[in-house]
Automatic annotation (TrEMBL):
<keyword id="KW-0040">ANK repeat</keyword>
<dbReference type="Pfam" id="PF00023">
    <property type="entry name" value="Ank"/>
</dbReference>
<feature type="repeat" description="ANK">
    <location>
        <begin position="36"/>
        <end position="58"/>
    </location>
</feature>
<feature type="repeat" description="ANK">
    <location>
        <begin position="70"/>
        <end position="96"/>
    </location>
</feature>
<dbReference type="Pfam" id="PF12796">
    <property type="entry name" value="Ank_2"/>
</dbReference>
<keyword id="KW-0677">Repeat</keyword>
<dbReference type="InterPro" id="IPR036770">
    <property type="entry name" value="Ankyrin_rpt-contain_sf"/>
</dbReference>
<dbReference type="InterPro" id="IPR002110">
    <property type="entry name" value="Ankyrin_rpt"/>
</dbReference>
<feature type="repeat" description="ANK">
    <location>
        <begin position="108"/>
        <end position="129"/>
    </location>
</feature>
<protein>
    <submittedName>
        <fullName>Uncharacterized protein</fullName>
    </submittedName>
</protein>
């Protein structure tokens, strides 16, 4: 029987459904494990063989909740599939067989959601969050939630999904005192994905100063992000002064800033390049002349018009 079980594991790896059916009919043990604690269901789940997963679950339903020597369940293995692999069908079968596995941590505290956040499979993330919303707030032994893993991989779609599930973790520090925003900006390469991931996080910033402090650490590489923070939250005069000048892209925030405070708009203009300030003054004078004798435009609309003037 041990030999049959070993052959069953090989068939599970290769995806040979006919061989698996024959081996099970001959009495192969579906719950037999390797020296690493892997059973055929772990192997089939890791490879994304949905048909085999169904067969093995029918033969031994309890294996859906069985952990290997590192605490990993079949759901952990399925969740590790890449964003383009056919893992969703496997995950669905495993959740139906053992829904509690969605909250099961492995030896280092990784839940299946941590694993799929690493892999970037949005469809599987949605399935796991629906089955176990609490998974979004679970921490591994490094005090990382799934959002830390998604941010480390600079996956803005995954980060946005996890922010909706657990917004309070947007600036939660891990065991190394690094927040998701730190992780997004600390990569060696400056990428569009990193910038968009950071923008998602800034959109959930609970206060200015923590986010501003992190942006100041990376101001030479990601100066464009100051505009995203300024557009969302009001800054004090001292906070505006801390932003390196000139900061040309800061003009993007002008409509939102002018809409909430003319004082802040003045502080923003002070951080622009001299050429931008001159063009802005000329545009403001022209706009004032055009509005003589007519009702004043809303502040945000004036800001949009002035910001557009800086683009040309």
């Amino acid at each position: 029987m041990v030999e049959l079980a070993a052959i069953l594991s090989l068939a599970a790896y290769s995806g040979d459904e006919a061989a698996v059916r024959q081996l099970l009919a001959r009495g192969a043990w579906p719950d037999h494990t390797t020296t690493e604690g892997l059973n055929p269901l772990h192997i089939a789940s890791s490879c994304g063989h949905a048909g085999l997963v169904r067969l093995l679950l029918e033969a031994s339903p309890v294996t859906a909740a069985t952990a290997d020597s590192d605490g990993g369940t079949a759901l952990h293995y399925a969740a590790q599939g890449s964003r383009n692999s056919p893992t969703a069908a496997v995950v669905r079968l495993l959740l139906e067989a053992a829904p509690a596995a969605a909250l099961a941590p492995d030896a280092v505290g990784f839940t299946p959601l941590h694993s799929t956040a690493d892999a970037g499979n949005i469809e599987v993330m949605k399935m796991l969050l629906t089955a176990a919303p609490a998974a979004a707030t679970m921490l591994n032994t490094n005090k990382e939630a799934a959002i830390h893993r998604a941010t480390y991989r600079c996956n803005p779609a995954a980060v946005q999904l996890l922010l909706e599930a657990a917004p309070a973790l947007a600036f939660a520090p891990d065991a190394c005192d690094e927040t998701p925003l730190h992780l997004a900006l600390s990569g060696y390469w400056i990428t569009t994905e990193a910038r968009e991931t950071a923008r998602c996080l800034l959109g959930a910033a609970p206060a200015v100063q923590p986010a501003l402090d992190i942006l100041l650490q990376h101001s030479q590489r990601y100066a464009t992000l100051f505009a995203d923070l300024a557009a969302r939250l009001p800054l004090s005069q001292d906070q505006w002064r801390s932003i390196p000048a000139p900061c040309p892209d800061l003009a993007r925030a002008l409509p939102a800033v002018l809409g909430r405070s003319t004082a802040e708009a003045g502080w923003l203009v002070g951080r622009l390049a001299e050429g931008q300030r001159k063009r802005l003054r000329a545009a403001a004078l022209g706009l004032a002349r055009a509005q003589r004798g007519v009702p004043s435009l809303p502040a945000e609309l004036r800001g949009r018009i002035l910001a557009l003037c800086l683009l040309y």
